[in-house]
Amino acid sequence: MARRNDHTKEELRELALNAAEALVAKEGLSGLSARKVAASIGYSAGSLYQLFASIDELCWELNSRTLSVLLQQLVESEQPCAAQEQLNAYALCYYEFAIRHTSSWSLLFEHKSSTCDALPVKLTAQIEDLFAQIERPLMHLNKSKTPKEVALAAKTLWSGVHGITTLAVNRKLFLSIDGAEIAMLDCLISSFLEGWCKEKPAC
């Protein structure tokens, strides 16, 4: 069995996070425990608690890594195109991310802290950064809206995108049409923007 001084603290945290990701992918959130994570990297559960105050903290760290990857992929999906096309690209990116990284993506919504409801400041900032990506094209499409209205619209629209994605991931769309998920995402966005842009005929 490895000893704690075989790795730096940073190395050990990375080992633990990688092991936790593997456990979540294999067994889901219910299969995640300090004992299992520690055993998989050859350390004791006590050693793990020298790195993370609780399983909640470990999950927050996992979710932070997931959000970082998701944001990077959203940024990479940006194209020199019309705002509506960019929103379609973001939606497709989000859907494909959920399909490719289902366990990590699911943990974002399944994990609830056992001690408090408030998100860590780092996670809150990452979520705000993600929504800022959605707010920019919405603001471009209707410059008469206030920042609060744009923020509300971004969350409203993305709630719909998330709903379609969730149903698709869980195979609950009950549609046999190839590419139905993408068609639904495009339909949602175009319908939403029809109302969003109604004050601007040029849209």
TrEMBL record:
Residues 33-52 bind DNA. PROSITE patterns: HTH_TETR_2 (PS50977). This is TetR/AcrR family transcriptional regulator. Residues 10-70 form the HTH tetR-type domain. Coiled coil: none annotated. Keywords: DNA-binding, Transcription, Transcription regulation. Pfam families: TetR_C_33, TetR_N.
